[in-house]
Specification:
By secondary structure, the protein is an all-alpha fold. It has helices at 2-26, 30-55, 59-84. Helix 1 runs antiparallel to helix 2. It is flat and about 50 Å long.
């Protein structure tokens, strides 16, 4: 039962990744592209967590935590760059 739910979740998150990648490529504005990139790394974290549940390994959870920290810092840096034109004041 759990494997069936995990396969369905993999499919749903994969479709979400495809749609956010499409928005990243087609996005009409830079802000839309930053939001699509943010959504893309959140979906990749979801894939890693689902795979960690599937493999029953805690290593994937640690990798997901590292990706979430790096993604947060990257999103903040891109947002600051779009607002002010520079990252460091």
């Amino acid at each position: 039962m759990l494997e069936t739910v995990l396969h369905i979740a993999f499919l749903i998150v994969s479709v979400a990744m495809f749609l956010s990648f499409y928005r990243l490529i087609i996005g009409p504005d830079a802000i839309d592209r930053v939001l699509a990139l943010d959504t893309l790394y959140i979906n990749s974290i979801a894939i890693l967590i689902l795979y960690g549940i599937y493999e029953t390994s805690s290593l994937y959870f640690e990798v997901a935590l590292l990706i979430s920290i790096m993604g947060f810092v990257g999103t903040i840096a891109l947002s600051k760059f779009l607002l002010r034109g520079d990252i460091i004041e």
